[in-house]
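Quick one, probably user error.
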């Protein structure tokens, strides 16, 4: 099967997926109202099957798995529609909302993180009576090497395990009980580690020792609070307790069993989230070649909070309302500063509007902007028309606060979610430079539009050049046009695209205008068109706020390489 890699490919099909989810949701709602009308549920099931295939094609495994589970649950409800399926239908409805949020998340954050969908997938699987998947199901373990050898060649001490094993297991269970209750986690993890260390030393180099070694890394992560204690991790520690019991009761036969790959994967996944913050974790990180700068457990929790937040449509609506309210505040301040306000209440209504905006900003996670605006609202409340000075330092600081809040609100709309960290630096940089993000974005859109217009002009000139039997007159203005496009791309800091346009300009100038010794071939001109069109597609994605990804730039660079004008690395 063809697989289109990268989250950018979602932009190509997101509108169709959103439409399918809308159809499924609408049919599901009508089925709830008319349970006897099975065609409604069948229509929803068809949409789940459709988007499942699309998710597989664009390589979103978590979304594909969730869609498949929804399809199966739909068939189950269809087969038992005479029963009360209210909870199952609610689970499907909730899953659709999660999928909508998840697609917005992937589109904006440019990362898939299928692990974020595991709680929802498990909720649906629960109603299907299927075993729940682990949080490491999407983690790529890679190779599964043996644990590092112990010093010397220790042999298992079966007699000592028989005599001390039950006591050591009891030590482990005491610590486990405390962890299950979330009591003194660090101390209890150390107690469990001590028990596992003793069992490991008595197990020698038998295959089961790999489980003890990985368990020590997991306990190290939990003890240092590098990962959160959740149900899945508590369950893993409970499984280790059962393995200790097997070793104590069954002796050598249990010790010669390798831990399952699924167990190893779960332990290594936890180690990858914790990072090399201890000796055992460092060993696991090195052996399994984990990325030390990758996703952490804290990052993962933050991403889950983003996904659970309000959807993009809600955020955009609130942002638009706030922007409108800010415009009213700016107009009122302007009138008040010029003494043109006829309101006897002075600046009290303006201050009250500023306070309301501050409260809304807090709800959106923009706490710093909210604090700044609230502080300035208290200053504005004390102003009077008689002593207000539009040139004063105090008035300018209020104006700066307005600009800062405006910039913060402007960052809400493109991100389509409550991630206050994604664009926080953007607002900070803009306020320090006294620039409006909204105006800057407008300027960028104008530049993108002008750059695309220039590329269209160049493409028309090249087409005329080909249609006129290679009349070079049609190309005379193309280098100048492409030079202006190059300047716009540099302004936009799109250095990779600018380098391609520069190479196109050089090719046209040298090979098509100055050097006319050889007649260009149709294949040569098509290759040039591929490069220019690729840059145009890239800019079109920016213009529509649906970035197509850097892969299209690789096509453009390969085209120029084929023409003999390789693009220099930006």
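Nope, works fine. Designed sequence:
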């Amino acid at each position: 099967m063809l697989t289109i890699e990268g989250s950018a490919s979602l932009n190509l099909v997101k509108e169709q997926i959103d439409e399918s989810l809308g159809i499924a949701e609408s049919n599901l709602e009508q089925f709830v109202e008319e349970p006897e009308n099975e065609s409604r549920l069948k229509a929803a099931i068809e949409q789940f099957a459709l988007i499942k295939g699309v998710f597989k094609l664009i390589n979103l495994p978590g979304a594909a798995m969730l869609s498949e589970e929804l399809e199966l649950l739909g068939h189950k409800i269809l087969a038992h529609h005479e029963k009360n399926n209210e909870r199952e239908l609610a689970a499907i409805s909730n899953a659709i909302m999660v999928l909508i949020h998840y697609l917005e998340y992937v589109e904006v954050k440019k990362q898939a993180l299928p692990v974020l969908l595991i709680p929802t997938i498990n909720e649906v699987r629960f109603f299907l009576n299927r075993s729940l998947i682990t949080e490491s199901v999407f983690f790529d373990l890679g190779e599964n090497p043996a644990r590092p050898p112990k010093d010397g060649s220790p042999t298992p001490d079966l007699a000592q395990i028989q005599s001390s094993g039950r006591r050591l297991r009891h030590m482990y269970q005491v610590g486990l009980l405390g962890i299950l209750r979330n009591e003194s986690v660090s101390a209890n993890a150390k107690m469990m580690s001590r028990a596992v260390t003793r069992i490991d030393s008595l197990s020698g180099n038998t295959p089961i020792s790999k489980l003890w070694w990985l368990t020590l890394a997991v306990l190290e992560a939990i003890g240092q609070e590098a990962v959160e204690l959740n149900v899945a991790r508590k369950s893993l520690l409970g499984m280790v307790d059962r393995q200790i019991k097997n070793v104590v009761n069954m002796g050598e036969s249990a010790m010669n069993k390798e831990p399952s790959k699924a167990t190893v994967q779960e332990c290594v996944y936890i180690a990858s989230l914790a990072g090399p913050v201890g000796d055992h974790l460092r060993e696991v990180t090195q052996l399994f070649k984990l990325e030390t700068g990758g996703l952490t457990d804290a990052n993962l929790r933050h991403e889950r909070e983003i996904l659970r937040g309000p959807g993009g449509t809600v955020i955009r609506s609130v942002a638009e309302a706030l922007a409108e309210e800010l415009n009213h505040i700016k107009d009122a301040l302007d009138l008040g500063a010029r003494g043109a306000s006829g309101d006897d209440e002075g600046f009290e209504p303006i201050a009250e509007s500023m306070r309301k905006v501050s409260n809304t900003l807090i709800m959106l996670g923009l706490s710093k902007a909210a604090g700044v605006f609230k502080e300035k609202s208290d200053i504005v409340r004390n102003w009077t028309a008689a002593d207000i000075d539009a040139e004063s330092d105090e008035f300018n600081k209020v104006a700066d606060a307005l600009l800062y809040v405006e910039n913060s609100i402007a960052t809400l709309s493109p991100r389509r979610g409550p991630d206050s960290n994604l664009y926080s630096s953007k607002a900070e940089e803009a306020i320090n430079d006294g620039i409006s993000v909204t105006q800057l974005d407008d300027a960028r859109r104008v530049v993108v539009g002008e750059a695309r217009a220039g590329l269209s002009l160049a493409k028309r000139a090249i087409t005329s050049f080909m249609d006129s039997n290679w009349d070079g007159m049609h190309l005379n203005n193309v280098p100048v046009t492409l030079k202006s496009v190059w300047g716009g791309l540099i302004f936009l800091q799109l250095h990779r695209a600018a380098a391609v346009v520069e190479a196109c300009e050089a090719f046209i100038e040298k090979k098509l205008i100055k050097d006319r010794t050889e007649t260009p071939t149709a294949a040569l001109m098509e290759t040039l068109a591929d490069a220019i069109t690729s840059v145009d597609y890239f800019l079109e994605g920016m213009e529509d706020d649906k970035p197509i990804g850097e892969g299209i730039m690789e096509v453009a660079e390969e085209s120029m390489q084929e023409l003999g004008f390789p693009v220099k690395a930006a």
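The domain at 309-433 is CATH 1.20.120 (Four Helix Bundle (Hemerythrin (Met), subunit A)).
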